[in-house]
Amino acid sequence: YFAEAEHAFDGAQDWTVEGVTTLSLAIYGAASNGAGTLYVALADSSKTVAVKSTDAAILTTGSWTTWSIPLSDFAGLKLTGIKKMYIGVGDRDNPTAGGAGLIFVDDIRLTK
Length: 112
Description:
Blueprint: E1 3-13, E2 22-28, E3 38-43, E4 48-52, E5 64-70, E6 82-89, E7 104-111
Antiparallel strand pairs: 1-6, 2-5, 2-7, 3-4, 3-6
């Protein structure tokens, strides 16, 4: 009842180098998409923390939208040891039926 893409990095990634502070990604949704919540989750060796988008229209806007997430929103995560990244739609902790559609994700970047 949720859709999720997972990427496991080859070795732990240090997301503090060069003073980066923000994870950004470009999202393209469609008006025909069903309701849902977009989230990004990061995992270190012992913990996974998810951040949900507060933009209810991000999945249904028929244009590219940049979602910028301060890395500080991933509280309690060891940002010097990121092992996995998840991008998903729905509630990974409490899955429920509903929602359908297609989104595109591009330009995943770390910035200052």
